[in-house]
Amino acid sequence: MTIEELEAYFEGIDLPESVKLNEATIIVDLPKFIKSHIITVKAHGHIRAYQSFYDRLVQLKDILEAQHATPAAD
After folding, report:
1. Number of domains within the chain
2. Is 50 in contact with 41 (CB distance < 8 Å)?
3. How many helices (H) does the chain have, and how many strands (E)?
4. Which residues lie closer than 8 Å to 63 by C-beta, 6 or more apart?
């Protein structure tokens, strides 16, 4: 998936208040997280040391898709 495809995905969805990315990371400002990570990947994505920024965006997308696929408990 390209960074442009990820950017389009995040522009087209409603974001929750916060997301637990993993056991050590809770994102509390998703718009800021997404914007900063997209900017970083576009500027430095060709450098292997910055791969984690792309990986976190993909991980966030997967989490959000899983949340939308799971019906909310009543």
Report:
1. 1
2. yes
3. 3, 2
4. 19, 20, 21
Range of the domain at 37: 3-69
List pLDDT tens digits, range 18-66: 999 999 999 999 999 999 999 999 999 899 999 999 999 999 999 999 9
Mean pLDDT in the chain? 92
Closest to 25 (Cα-Cα) out of 53, 2, 67, 65: 53
Site of tokens 């450098």? 47
Whether 74 is covered by a domain: the verdict is: no
Report in angstroms the alpha-carbon separations of 12 from 15, 24, 71: 9, 27, 20
Extract the runs of DSSP E, i.e. beta strands, from 1-74. 19-22, 25-27
